[in-house]
Specification:
mainly beta, about 230 residues, about 0% helix, eight-stranded mixed sheet, Thaumatin
Length: about 230
């Protein structure tokens, strides 16, 4: 399913109900900058943002043209929010990605993660297929990078220790430098319950692009979970 060694983005709904999916692109040189290029997006808000309804068991796929990257994030039920609202009292988490960016200088990395910095409203899972191996920046006793083929977030206060996830308020993974300032954060947890090691990003050399990166919606988060 790989075209010109481009990594394919797949969006899937693992529940039994329809879900609204928002896609927000980054204005990154060399990357797609018109959400209308994604054929499944039905409502265009602006060049960089739009949404559509994703049905259960009907995944959608997108492969950028050869030489083009894909940078942005996916959120469920709402566009990304920095602070909780009445509708989303525990805030909103997003699935972030930059793919097919081998055109960048230096040693570019395809990078994916789940940001729960501003809260958690959804259970999101990444599953990676084929292409080069993905790692989370840690090494084993032999000095080899530890690889990963899937990761997911948990509820609002349960993401410390989760590979590929920025916990609530932890905008630099292992600490809180400048998280969103809100009138009142979700409770729990307090800001500052961060990762002890820099495991929030999952990456691989962009030169090994290919295969598929699947982002799956697995339901709405509750606190406590239940």
């Amino acid at each position: 399913m790989t075209t010109n060694n481009q990594t394919i983005l797949v969006l899937a709904n693992g529940t039994v109900d329809d879900v609204q999916v928002w896609i927000t692109l980054g204005a990154t040189p060399g990357c797609i900058q018109h959400v209308s290029d994604l054929p499944f997006v039905t409502t265009i808000v602006n060049d960089l943002q739009g949404y559509f309804t994703l049905k259960p068991a009907q995944p959608v796929f997108y492969t950028p043209p050869a030489g083009k990257g894909l940078n942005g994030n996916v959120s469920f039920g709402t566009p990304p929010l920095n602070c909780p609202t009445t509708d989303w009292p525990k805030g909103v988490n997003v699935a972030e990605f930059i793919l097919n960016n081998s055109f960048q200088t230096g040693n570019p990395q395809e990078t994916i993660d789940i940001s729960a910095v501003a809260g958690v409203n959804a259970y999101i899972k990444f599953i990676m297929f084929e292409g080069g191996a993905w790692n989370y920046g840690q090494t084993d006793e032999a000095g080899h990078l530890k690889t990963v083929t899937e990761f997911e977030n948990k509820g609002l206060g349960d993401n410390v220790g989760q590979v590929g996830v920025y916990p609530y308020g932890c905008d630099v993974c292992t600490s809180s430098a400048a998280p969103p300032v809100c009138p009142g954060p979700p409770t729990p947890p307090p800001h500052g319950a961060c990762q002890s090691a820099a495991i929030c990003n999952v990456q691989r050399p962009a030169s090994t692009a290919g295969g598929r990166v699947l982002i799956r919606f697995d339901g709405w988060s509750k606190y406590p979970r239940g």
